[in-house]
Amino acid sequence: MDAEDGDTRSLKLSVYPIVADKNWLTVDRSRQVLRGISLNQGDFEFRLEARDSANQMTSAAFRVSVDEVTPSNHLFIFDIQKSYQHLTKDPDTMLAFATKLAHSLGDRLPKNIVIRCV
Question: Where would I find the Peptidase S72 domain in this sequence (predicted)?
Fold first, then answer.
């Protein structure tokens, strides 16, 4: 809770990887949750940063553990026009891709889509 700005909905929230060179997490501001698609399993460390209207900042470190993917009952292989770098440089791009893929397969939610490699 910020004295001037109130709860986290009034703050600018950002997430940054501590060790990795690519960030696959993003802040969903409307739902106040972190979302992302990791292409690797393992433990990943991040820092959540909150800034208020006076640009004062606080941060907290946290770890995300990505488990091995459970076997799936379908496998699709796609040839896409965008490069690997374009698709993976921004977490929101990968999430938008998963959402569009889910919709095209008749699923409303991308949580049922597992991306094993790009």
Answer: 71-118
CA distances from 117 to 16, 38, 77 (A): 22, 9, 10
Query: Residue 62 has which token pair?
Result: 């946290």
Q: How far apart are CA 39 and CA 37, in angstroms?
A: 6
Domain limits for position 67: 8-105
- Counted domains in the chain: 1
Per-residue confidence in pLDDT tens, the chain, 118 aa: 556 666 667 889 999 999 877 889 999 988 889 999 998 899 999 999 999 888 989 999 999 999 887 787 878 888 888 888 888 888 999 889 889 988 988 888 788 788 877 7
In a domain, 116, yes or no: no
Q: Quick one: which of 90, 88, 72 has its CA closest to 80?
A: 88
Residue 62 lies in a domain: yes
